[in-house]
TrEMBL record:
InterPro entries: Aldo-Keto_reductase, NAD(P)_OxRdtase_dom_sf, NADP_OxRdtase_dom
Name of this protein: Putative aldo-keto reductase 1
Domain NADP-dependent oxidoreductase positions: 19-74
Superkingdom assignment: Eukaryota
Keyword Oxidoreductase: yes
One cellular component term from this protein's GO annotations in UniProt: cytoplasm
Gene3D superfamilies, A to Z: NADP-dependent oxidoreductase domain (3.20.20.100)
GO molecular function, one term: oxidoreductase activity
Keywords: NADP, Oxidoreductase
Coiled coil: none
Length: 79
């Protein structure tokens, strides 16, 4: 891997993810949220531009963003 690579490798999972991540707080924060379809479009837009690390922590809402990312995966959006 080049020292200037945009990806990071994890030996345990043998996977790579982008160094730049996407925090999902803006999709379903307590003060502001977007529809599922808008959230899916935003996440897909980031993925298409090379982002492969998404942070859907429950702090942003109880499993809300994890469910949203899961919807994309089950629709074949990432794989």
């Amino acid at each position: 891997m080049s020292p200037h690579s945009t990806d990071v490798s994890f030996r345990i999972a043998e996977k790579t993810v982008s160094k730049l991540g996407f925090g999902c707080i803006g999709l379903s924060s307590h003060n502001n949220s977007v529809s599922d379809e808008a959230g899916i479009a935003i996440i897909k837009h980031a993925f298409e531009r090379g982002i492969t690390y998404f942070d859907p922590t429950d702090m942003y809402g109880p499993k809300t963003n994890k469910i949203l990312v899961g919807k994309i995966c089950t629709r074949g959006g990432f794989f």
